Fold this protein.
Amino acid sequence: MEQTPMSEKPLPTVVTEPVNITVDGEEITVQNGELLIEACHRNGTYIPRFCYHPRMNPVGMCRMCLVEIDTGRGPALQPSCMIEVTPGMVVDTKSDLVSKVQDGVIEYLLANHPLDCPVCDKGGECPLQDQAYSHGPGESRWVEEKRHYAKPIPISETVYLDRERCILCDRCTRFAKEVAGDPLIHFIDRGANTQVNTFPDEPFASYFSGNTVQICPVGALTAKPYRFKARPWDLQTVESTCTGCSVGCRIEIDSSRNHVLRYNGVDSDPVNWSWLCDKGRFGFESLEAADRLREPLVRSGETLEPASWAAALATAAEAINAASPGSIGVIGGSRLTNESAYAWAKLAKGVIGTDNVDAQLGDGLPADVVFGLPQATIDEVCKPGGTILYLGPDPKEELPVLYLRLKHAVDEDGARIIELAPAGTGLTRHSAVSLNYRPGELGQLVDSLVSGSNSTGENAALSTAAKLIAAAGDSLTVVIGRANLAENAQSVVAAATAIRDAVPGVKFLVALRRGNVRGALEAGLAPGYLPGRVSLTGGQDDQVAAFKSLWGNVPAKQGLDTKGILWAAAEGKLDVLILLGADPLSDFPDRSLARRGVAGARTVIAIDRFPTASVVQADVVLPAAGHSEEQGTTTNLEGRVTVLNQKVTPPGTARPDWMIAAELAWKLGGDLGVDTESSELWAELVASTETFAGAGVDALADTANADGIVITAEPRPLATVEAPHVSPTSAYSLRLVVNRKLYDAGASISRCDSSSALAPAQALRLSPADASPLGLKDLDRVSVTSPNGSLSARVALDSSVPKGTAVLVHNLAEADPGALVASDDAVCEIRVEVG
Amino acid sequence: MIGATTPAPTLIDGVPAVVSSRFGVEGGHTIDGYRSTGSYKGYEAIRKALDMGPSAVAATVKDATVLGRGGAGFPAGIKWGFTPAGVWPRYIVVNGDESEPGTYKDRVLMERDPHQIIEGCLIAAYAIGAAQVFLYVRGEMAHAQERIAAALNEAYAAGLVGRNILGTNFSVDIVLHWGAGAYIVGEETALIESLEGNRGMPRLKPPFFPAAKGLYLKPTVVNNIETLSNLPWLFNNSVDAYRAIGTDASPGTRLVAVSGHVNNPGVFEIPQGTTTFRELFESPIYGNGIRTGHQLKMFIPGGGSAPWFFPEHVDLPLEGRVIGGEGSMLGSGAIVVMDETTDAVRAALRLARFFARESCGKCTPCREGTTWQEKILQRILDGHGRPSDIDLLLDVGDNISPGPYPVASDAAKGLDAIPYPPKQTTICPLGPSSVAPITSAIRRFRDEFDAKIVKRNLIPVSVESFEDAPTLAESTDHGADTHV
């Protein structure tokens, strides 16, 4: 497809109902009922446009796409973005009249548009500029004073609006209302004074605000992180994948002079449709954080002192050599590329010989479950007319672009969501039925939904949900994940197996949150597993033997998961704890155990980008390359493998994780078999597993696979798990829900200048029904006590929280709920007292 | 603003008063007044309609050829028939957002005979099977809103609106909705958007024909206040009696609002198609002559959107087809009379400014073009016009409604009649409406434009020596002409 003034590609359309139309004298075959502007674009006739965006409903506002259409009653000027093709339609996109009115529209748009292109961020990649050249009259007859407004005005923490440049195309406002569901910007006034603005005192506080900057056809909307940083012709661009969460949105990385300056969304049809969340879009800011680790550090007494790589690696190798394999644990790896994850699996399990390896931090689901459920893609979950059973984390907070896809499926494609959640979420208002359960009691709710037991009769919402599920049959899809970090994973696993057993043909999308957690698990960073889902203990002796011959060694028995590793460390049984981009002190739900574990390990080796709470306690710190700084592949939550491209060099002497693994292996007397490129590791992984077999280097490089390759594997055997038995709550206690917000004190987001201030204040969210007996109102301070600890927090009354439940947010700067949670408990009961 | 209103005869100059019979009646706006005064007895028509059955009611309206009185003149009975069969619910929306410049006939109907509208709504709702009627009244018309609200309360209390009307199983709710004051909401799809709680901006037809995808994307009939006000009289009398008034193509009467330079401006009910403009301006029962001592210069035959007419057009009858053939339209029945004291440029600016300010901002050509027209006209009036401005004005208009623009024909000046409506680059006709007065004024009164422009540009320039180099003002002017 040739370069067009608007960067949006035509929608991928499969012609199932072909009709012939004539465009500029040439007959083309297109899909009956598709929009004319799309049909023409796909067949090589670009009609200029400003307001039309293929991923939003057309409005026919800008009038730039007017063409002459003859459906048998003579040619008429019609906006091609709103007219659906009909058989025999004759279209003229270049007639004298069309040219004249398009000239007119350009002249009108430029009448009040400031000619400040030389200082405008959009200049050089501006659809108005480009189409003024390609379709405009060349000069303007406007001699009046142009419209003036204060410029620019901030409409949110990150987005600035210049109303003088705005051409009122309704793209941003439509996006905010229709796509994001945050109608916080709108037109005000009328006629030539029409302007986009926010409501008074209500900023455009949307998690998706950055998309409006990307789709603005002029420089009216600009984003703080990119303003005045570069000119488009100075940018170099590569396509890559965002690893801010596990959705794996396709992005373009723009850089200049070895600095990443901008991420833009790429329209990947199975994944992100060109949208990004602001956390992902502006996440590149953390790459150049002031405290980014640039050189290895080795502990000297109380402090970490800079060291050479040779010295730091030697210190690390010495500690590892001195320890028995069983007393070495590796936590983390979901930040890594697939290649690095494989390198570390090979190092830990093949060279060192420990199976105490876990890419998750007690806040995910066991690898047995991830591997044991039949998998669904995002498209399968969001299929038109589908029924979705959602029992995962709040997608708007944790997997924002998945939320956009789910919202679109409901709003535009007739899908229905049955949400099971301990408290209201961003998805609740889009759900056909939203059922709240008490923490720990998900299993009972799921049983009554899928078993058809008659207990649903009393509750109208429950019986509606049960009917929807029954009607969906085997087309039901389930999104499953950890909605509550204050419960262990057992109730979720029990629910998953119950649904699998009750609904034959059901498919699951496992909503684990971290960037490449799926890839890390598939590459072997899970206790009991070798790459390609090969179980050490599951009777796959041939495959285990194959890895033994490939790697030289494999662990003899299943090792510990993160919780087990931290317990072992806390009890003084762990000699070496390797933190592979993991920060258990911030992320592990049980803060007390994390603290005792990190302190109890004799030697802590941290491989990371930032001096996190855990890293500063380490004995050896090795700086790692980050996103945009290394080449490789990643795997999203669907199991979609996409290519990560390097655009800039890592800071200082930081290097990719796989390289650190290879060096360390060398020091330990082993050999990972990688020479210069991470693709050697990828080739080895692809060659040695069935899971990744279809996703080789050549296949990924094929443009037909630009959206990545979904790895497929038969679900592994997964035994039915019993729901935990939770004793009834005492009359005075509440059950705690710990969930996440998009913006928190996380290592990356807190180092993004434009986003770090957006983390909300911690508050104990309570049902008004629970607050009133205590006489509590908003902002009152309370002490919260569990059997494991206590904290002080302010109260926020929230009617979306059911009675008997209280909600705290994980990993904010204050009032850390990790102090209350014990990792073994099925639920966390708390007492709330005034003061 | 409202001039003389005729007292309440059942006949006006030998012609039945179909909708205006209670205009001059004290208390005619109350339910008792509606039942006891005027040319027919109130709330009898709905009784008759309920006896006839919905299809017979619809057929009666169709047979009588009740033309829409909002501007386009489309037969109401045929419009009702466009609602797709079997799609429910369906709605009736009554367009009371009367705001075309010069138009105030619906306002009088709403203020002086609200029960007549309510009864019309009931008949229409019964005919098409709507259970909900939305009466959308322009934001500025507080008195009309209060009168309708009071009338609705009376009608609900009397069991004439609501559940089981008159003891039948016919139920309908009528909801009064106050607009927020926007001309564009008089356009039916913008009105529907506004009713839905959105900003009043028109929808594109196709695909959003209200009859199929209207309010809440359900079948919706949008009728004008005056159109529905005709129904009670029709059902109290007969199709034949209705068709006996006016002409065959345009039966019945219509309300016209005459304003401007006549001795007796006001709202008059006239038989459709037979009365001429001359009668309307000069008859003692209507305009009673052009302002004494002055002559007619031009007049707007159908609201601010209509191309202008001139003295040679006064003998034309007020008949939609005839007026259309002559290059203008009867539109909303607003006739603005201007005598020779009127400055054509200023009159054009006045109208252009209205459309520029009322443009909703949706379509680029209307949003930017109408404002541009206003600025150019203002500049000409201020004495800053340039000779190229007249062509610029015409071309700015041409980019809103491309192709030959409808003008009032004038054989003497070699102007051909071009039928309404024009081609347009906008969704709704607001933008093209702004072009009509400007084009009319330029075509007929170009000399007035030239006079204002030439006067300003008489800059004494001598080119005989270098000492008389172009002045700063001149070079600035030149620069402006070629400014990119």
